[in-house]
Every structure is written in structure tokens, then in C-alpha cells.
Design a protein that fits this description.
Length: 405
């Protein structure tokens, strides 16, 4: 834990607020899960409406992220974080008092917009505060906050629901968010020299071979993660007669492994080639994914889920610090725009993953679908790495030619 002793007071405060903000965002995201049966029984929504409810978060995030990231580069991180937290508080209160599916969907949509403001801005704040050599580790810590919020949201929501009513989880979360708003307003300070950044040329940034590689890796990892959510519960219920509690435990094991490995991978990315780490992580994911199809007991399923969670955490953690390093090379300081692109690919994965999982499992058994997904990850991962290597070789050849000329 020597990294904490190297931090300044401003860096510690900034990291603490980023952890709190990302934690509360994902806590709110998963808080709804145990309360879904209540709304299903009370409102009698169709399957399509339930699908709209859960997809509205990612759709809103996709729409709003390209807007908020660049704005945070111009307005400053503190202001954008306050706007995002206010949006989270408003969406949570709307959840508490929603009596129709229309209001629930609106609340989920507002939550996605708020996440589009907080996610890239929080990551950009870390990039502002920490030098490149420390960035990988602190980004890994930020991912751990995300996984912890995801892990605790459902059980906390279920417990508060059981001891009170369906409004209590949302009211408690709203109160926590308001406290967070007050703390950010009072104690989060920004370096005034870093609140104004040069405009990032997004077109050129997206065409950067390194960014293309990172985007592809993020998409593969997020799609793989999100397609498991709608497919595995039915698969394990039919194959191993698992209860909903046991299935929740399995996803908790995966999330825990993700959160534990993320800081390790982030730290390694500061000392090793981060692109090789990402490639190694995605290849490991491809190898371990079929283990789910072959699991014949609860313990085998838990081991497979832990390995998959660790693989995804190992894959994604180096992407954040590396994106910041690419911005550093350009000298723009437009971290908000860069991390808004990360958030967009994350959102695309959240939409495409369940869709891909649904289509595949409609056509094939889940075990066959998992094997196809694993083979696809393997193929596309290798293709991305070859493309990255080829682009570096081409760039080196051009530089050598210019030197000879």
C-alpha cells in the first residue's frame, strides 16, 4: 500500500471522492434488482417493458456521454461531478415514488444520464491529479469501487426492502448521495490550471491504432460480462437446480474477483507493456469462458465465475491508465473526452451483451453459445493485437524512412 504514502493531500481527497462517487453510482444501478419482483407483481409489465426498463440506463448513457465528457474538460471536474450527483439523487427519489412503468423507465433513463456525467469526469479527475506512473494503480482502485458498489447494491436493497418497504432502499441511497454532494461541494478542490484544456480532435483520437485496440478490448470484455447476466441464471437453474440466492452468490464471486484483481493489473500496467496485459487478459477470458458450460457442481461453477471475473478485471484495468497516457502524448489534457469514449464503449457492451446472449441462446443451447462466444473473443482479440503490432511496425518504418531522407 506504499502508493498511499506517496500521495499528496489533494490526491488522497480526490481519490476518496472518486471512490465514493463510482461506488454510489453502481450501488444505485444494482439496487433495483431485488425490488423488481415487487414492481412486476404490482404493475404487471410485459417482458418487453421490463427489457426497456433495464436497457434505458445504457441507452441514456450512450446518448449523454459524448456531451458531458468534453464539457467537463471546459467547465471543470467539480462542477460536472456535482451535476451528475444531483441527477443521481433526483433519479433515486423518482424511483422511490414511481407508481407506473413510465416513471420507472424515466428514473432509469435519468440515472443513465447522471452516470454519463459522473463516470468519465471522475476518471478524468484521477488523470488530472496523478502522474502517469501512479495512474494505473489508482484507476484499478476506481474499478474496485465500481465492482464493490455492484456487489453490495442488490443485497443492501433487498435487506432494506425486507425491513421496511420498496421506497426505503431508494430513500436511503438518495440520502447517501446528498451527503456525497455536500462533501464534494465543501472539500473537493481543483487546480485552476487544469480546468481548461485544449480541445481534443476526436476524429484523430478515435483513428489512433492504440485507441482502436483499447476500444475493441473494452467491447469484447463488456459484451462477455453483460451477456452472462440474462443467460446463466436459466442455464444453472436447469442444469444444477440452483436457487436464486445461489445464482446471486455466483455473480457475487465473479464481481469480487473482478474487484480484487483490478488494482493488481493497474499497478502492473505502470511497469509492463499495458497492451500485452490487455491482450493476455482477453485471451484468458476466452480460455475460461467455456468452463461455465463444463461445470457440473456449484464449486466448479464458482471457480469458473471467479476466473472469468478476474480475467475481465485484468483486461479492463490497464485500459484506463493507458488512455490517459495517450492523451498525455498529445498534450491536450482532455481526459474527460477520452474517458467519455471509454464510457461509450462500456455502454455499447451493456446493450449488445444481453442482446447477443439472447439471440445465441434462442438459436443454440447455452453451452454451445458460450463456446461460440469464447471462440469469437479469441479470434477478435488476436485480430486486434495483430492490427496493433502492424500499425506500430508501419509507424516505425515511416520514421526510419524520414530519418534516411
Amino acid at each position: 500500500m506504499s502508493i498511499f504514502t506517496q500521495m499528496t493531500k489533494q490526491q488522497r481527497i480526490g481519490l476518496l471522492f472518486v471512490i465514493l462517487i463510482l461506488f454510489i453510482d453502481m450501488l444505485l444501478y444494482s439496487l433495483l434488482i431485488p425490488i423488481v419482483p415487487y414492481f412486476t407483481e404490482k404493475l404487471q409489465p410485459s417482458s418487453t417493458m421490463m427489457g426497456v426498463l433495464f436497457s434505458s440506463y445504457a441507452i441514456a448513457m450512450l446518448i449523454a456521454t459524448p456531451i458531458f465528457g468534453p464539457i467537463s474538460d471546459r467547465m471543470g471536474r467539480r462542477t460536472m461531478l456535482l451535476i451528475g450527483l444531483l441527477g443521481l439523487a433526483a433519479s433515486t427519489l423518482l424511483f422511490a415514488f414511481s407508481e407506473t412503468m413510465g416513471l420507472l423507465i424515466t428514473a432509469r433513463f435519468v440515472q443513465g444520464i447522471a452516470a454519463a456525467a459522473t463516470w468519465p469526469t471522475a476518471l478524468a479527475l484521477l488523470a488530472d491529479l496523478f502522474p502517469s506512473k501512479m495512474r494505473g494503480t489508482v484507476m484499478g482502485i476506481a474499478l474496485t469501487a465500481i465492482s464493490t458498489g455492484t456487489l453490495l447494491g442488490a443485497p443492501i436493497g433487498g435487506w432494506l426492502f425486507e425491513i421496511s418497504d420498496h421506497r426505503m432502499p431508494f430513500l436511503a441511497a438518495a440520502a447517501f448521495t446528498v451527503i456525497n454532494i455536500v462533501l464534494v461541494y465543501l472539500f473537493l478542490k481543483e487546480d485552476a490550471t487544469k480546468t481548461v484544456s485544449e480541445k481534443l480532435h476526436v476524429g484523430g483520437f478515435i483513428r489512433n491504432p492504440q485507441v482502436i485496440f483499447i476500444a475493441g478490448i473494452v467491447l469484447l470484455a463488456e459484451i462477455s460480462l453483460c451477456l452472462l447476466e440474462p443467460t446463466l441464471p436459466v442455464f444453472f437453474t436447469e442444469k444444477l437446480s440452483m436457487t436464486p440466492t445461489t445464482i446471486g452468490l455466483l455473480f457475487g464471486v465473479m464481481t469480487l474477483a473482478y474487484g480484487m484483481i483490478a488494482p493488481v493489473a493497474g499497478s502492473l500496467s505502470g511497469r509492463m507493456n499495458p497492451y500485452k496485459l490487455m491482450f493476455g487478459g482477453i485471451m484468458t477470458l476466452a480460455v475460461f469462458l467455456p468452463f461455465l458450460a463444463w461445470a457440473d457442481s456449484l464449486w466448479q461453477a464458482m471457480l469458473a465465475m471467479a476466473l472469468i471475473g478476474a480475467s475481465i478485471g485484468f483486461t479492463l484495468s490497464p485500459t484506463l491508465g493507458t488512455l490517459g497516457a495517450i492523451i498525455d502524448q498529445g498534450g491536450s489534457g482532455a481526459y474527460g473526452t477520452a474517458y467519455s469514449l471509454f464510457n461509450m464503449f462500456h455502454g455499447i457492451g451493456m446493450v449488445a451483451g444481453p442482446l447477443a446472449g439472447g439471440i445465441l441462446t434462442d438459436l443454440l443451447p447455452v453451452s454451445s453459445a458460450l463456446l461460440i462466444v469464447a471462440a469469437s473473443i479469441l479470434g477478435f482479440g488476436i485480430l486486434l493485437f495483430v492490427q496493433l503490432k502492424a500499425s506500430k511496425s508501419t509507424s516505425l518504418s515511416i520514421k526510419e524512412s524520414e530519418m534516411k531522407f
